[in-house]
Amino acid sequence: MKNILSILLLLSFIIGCKSIAGKNSEVKGTTSEYGTQEDQMKYYFTATGNEPFWALKMGTENIEFTSIISGREKLVFPASEAVKAMDANVEMYKVSNETSSATISIQQLECQNSMSGAISPYKVAIEIKKNSELEFKKLSGCGSYNTDYRLHDIWVLEELNGFKVFITDFQKELPRIEINSAENKFMGYGGCNAVSGSIFYEKDVLRFTQVISTRMACAPGNKEGEFTKALQNTTTYSIGDNRLTLSNPSGKLLVFRKVD
User: Fold this and answer.
1) Contact assessment for residue 156 and residue 164, using Cβ atoms and an 8 Å cutoff
2) Which site among 16, 31, 115, 156 is 20 to 30 Å from 250 CA-CA?
3) Which residues have C-beta within 8 Å of that of residue 13, sequence separation ≥ 6?
4) Run of H or E including 187
C-alpha cells in the first residue's frame, strides 16, 4: 500500500512540474531580447550613445531618457510631436517636465556605434539640462525605429487597386509576400516571378524599396506589373481582422490575408 501511495505522489509531482514548465514556456514565447512585443509597440524609436552612456526610448505616451550623467536616473517626458527641418531630413522634438528640458534631433543618416561598431540608420543628437543648471549637455549617438512586429508574417493578396483578385489574374497562384520585420526585408511571389526587396519603416510609414524580381516571361493579361507598382507606391498600412492593408494618400492599394 505504501509503495502504491509513493508512486502516486511521484506521478503527481512529475505532472505538476510539466504544468509549470509549460506555463513558463508560454511566457517566454511572448518575449525577445528587446522585451515583450507589447514593449516594442509602446516605444517606436530607441537610441543609445557612449561617453557618457545614455539611452533613449520614444513612445506615443512618453519619452524616457537614462544616462550616467543623471546618476542612472530615468527622466520621463510627455510625448511630443516632431518638428521637421525644412532643409534636411531631420525631426526635432522639444520636451520638458518639472525638473528638466531637452531637445532631441533625429537625422536619417547612417551612424556607427563608437564602441560596438554596429551600424544604425539614424543619427541622434540630444541637448539636455536640469532646470537648476545653466548650460545644456550635448550628447550624440545612433538609433532606429522599431518595425511593427505584426508585419512579420506571410500575406496572400486578396485585393488590388480596389478589386478582388483571382488566380486567373496571374500565372498559377495569387501573389504573396513574406515580411521579416527583424531584418526589414521581404520576399515572395508576384504572380509570375519571384520578388524580394527591403522595407523602410518609420513609425506609421511603410515603404517597399529596392524591389527586384526574376525575369520570366508572363502570360498576356497577367497583373504582376500592377501588383509590384502598387507595392512600390505604398506609404502607409493598417492591420486588423488578419488583413494587411497597404495604402498611400490616393487611397487603398493592396489588401492581403494572413496565412500560417
Assistant:
1) no
2) 156
3) none
4) strand 185-189
In 97-153, DSSP assigns E strands to: 100-107, 111-112, 119-120, 122-130, 137-145
Task: Say which residues have a Cβ less than 8 Å from residue 193's Cβ, sequence separation at least 6.
Answer: 213, 214, 215, 216, 218, 224
Other Cβ atoms closer than 10 A to 145: 19
The DSSP symbol for 42 reads: H
CB 197, CB 210: distance < 8 Å: yes
Chain CA centroid to CA 29, Å:
18
Cβ–Cβ under 8 Å, residues 111 and 142: yes
In this structure, what C-alpha cell is assigned to residue 8? 502516486
3-state helix, strand, coil in the chain (%, to 5): 20, 50, 35
Taking only the tens of pLDDT, the chain with its 260 residues reads 444 444 444 444 334 444 434 433 333 334 443 345 555 568 999 999 998 899 999 998 999 999 976 666 799 999 998 888 776 789 999 999 999 999 999 999 999 998 889 999 999 999 999 999 999 999 999 999 999 999 999 999 999 999 999 999 998 899 999 999 989 999 999 999 999 999 999 888 999 999 999 999 999 999 999 999 999 999 999 999 999 999 999 999 999 999 97
- Name the pairing type of β-strands 90-96 and 83-84: antiparallel
DSSP state of 203: T
Yes or no: say if 65 and 102 are a contact pair by the CB < 8 Å rule. yes
Q: Cis before residue 52, ω within 30 degrees of 0?
A: yes
Q: End-to-end CA distance of the chain, in Å? A: 51
* Residue 104, C-alpha cell as written in the block: 532631441
